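Changelog note: in this version the structure field was regenerated for every chain. One regenerated record is shown below for reference.
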Amino acid sequence: MNAYGYIEVVGLVPAVEAADAALKAAEVQVVGKENTGKAMIAVIIKGEIGAVRTAVNAAEEAVNRIGKVVNTNIIAKPDASLENLY
């Protein structure tokens, strides 16, 4: 694992769409989801950096068709202690 990717969306249906699009676009794993407040949900994925970039981009495109993306982020080469979060 070389990267984490996050996509924060408004609503559960867009979160499921984001996870589905990410998994179909690249060889990544969905690590979890977090409710970030006010109906916002962050979907967290991990994998190789190129795969994570591809997955986050695909998820963002998919969600933009049906809902609202609040934020995305990719953390390349995360510190080993981040593994303890998920």
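Spot check on this record: The chain has a mean pLDDT of 95. DSSP finds two helices and four strands in the chain.
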